[in-house]
User: What shape does this take?
Amino acid sequence: MRKYLNNSGEFCTAMSLADFVCYDDAILRTGGHKNGKKLGIEDLSELMDIPYGTLKRNIMNLNRKGVINYSREGSKKDGYVGETIVVNPYIYLRGKHINSTALGLFERSNWN
Assistant: This one.
C-alpha cells in the first residue's frame, strides 16, 4: 500500500482507520463493530487526535485514490440523510462474507 500513497500522512491515516473498520459492512464505526456509531471526519479527528483540516485533506486524498468512499443514506425522493465513510474491502477485509454493497463501491478501483 505504501507505494500508492504519496506521503506519510496518507499512509498513517489509512493505517489508523483500520481500528474503526466494521468487518460486517466496511463502515467506519466506534469500536469497529456493527453496533458502533458511524464516524465522520470530525469524530475521527477527535478519536485519532489529528487536526480536522489535516485529516480532511488526507481523507480527500484517500478517496481520490480509492482507499475510502462515501455511501449516501436515504433516497433522492426523501432527501439524503448523510454520508457514511466506507473503506475499500479489497484493502481492509478478507474472507468469504464481505458486504456486496461495499464491494460494489470499489469494483473499479485499482486495488481489486
In short: The two ends are 12 Å apart (CA to CA).
